[in-house]
Amino acid sequence: KNEVEQSPQNLTAQEEEFITINCSYSVGISALHWLQQHPGGGIVSLFMLSSGKKKHGRLIATINIQEKHSSLHITASHPRDSAVYICAVKRTSGSRLTFGEGTQLTVNP
Amino acid sequence: DTEVTQTPKHLVMGMTNKKSLKCEQHMGHRAMYWYKQKAKKPPELMFVYSYEKLSINESVPSRFSPECPNSSLLNLHLHALQPEDSALYLCASSQDWQGELDTQYFGPGTRLTVL
User: Which residues in chain B have their CB less than 8 angstroms from residue A97's CB?
Assistant: First the structure.
C-alpha cells in the first residue's frame, strides 16, 4: 500500500464545475504539498499545509491532521486547469518528499 | 525571483555520448535536488545537495554524476546512458531541505531521450 494515496486517478469535468481531489496518507507528516504539473513538464507548488485551510484564487486546500486526509478544491473550473495534480508529504521523520501517483484532471469547454 | 531554470529543454543522445544537464537558481536556496520522472509517474528523488555537499544519493547508477559548483548551480553529467534512462529530469531547490515547512521550487525539466 502506498503511503500517499490520491483519488480519483483521472477526472473529467465540464467548465465551471466544482472539482475535488483527495489525498490520504498513512505516515506522520510535518507538511503536505499540492503540486500542479502541466503537459510538457514543469511542476508548480500550489500549497503547503500543516493545518487548516488555504485559499488562492479559485483553489482551496484543506487538511485534517487527525484523519490524515487533505483535499484540493477548484471552484469554477476552466480548461486551463487541466493538468496533473500531485499530493506530496514531508514526513516528521526524514526530509524527503513522498509523492502520490497524481490525479489527471481534464476540464472540457 | 522564484524561478529555477534548466537547460537544455530537450536532449537526444546516443548511448556513447557524454552530455550535461544544468540547473540554476538565484533565490539563495541552500538545497538543490535532481529528480527523474517517467511518463505518468511521480518524480523519483535521485540526489540532494545541501550547502554544496552531496547529502543524498538514492543508489543512482554511476553513469549519472551530479556536481554542485556553487550554491546557485547544479549539474548532472551523463555518460553511457541506456534507453531506459529516457525520462524528464527535474531540478528543484529549497531553503533548507531538512526544514519541516520547507517548500521546493521546481524547474521546467529537461526531456531526455537516449537512443
Answer: 45, 104
Got the DSSP string for chain B? ---EEEE-SEEEE-TT-EEEEEEEE-S--SEEEEEEE-TTS--EEEEEEETTEEEEE-S--TTEEEEEEETTEEEEEEES--GGG-EEEEEEEES-TT-TT---EE---EEEEE-
Q: Which residues pair with A98 in a beta bridge?
A: A89
**How far does A44 lie from chain B, in Å, by closest CA?**
7
- Angstrom distance (rounded) from CA A34 to CA A36: 7
- pLDDT digit string (tens) for A49-104? 999 999 999 999 999 999 999 999 999 999 999 999 999 999 887 778 999 999 99
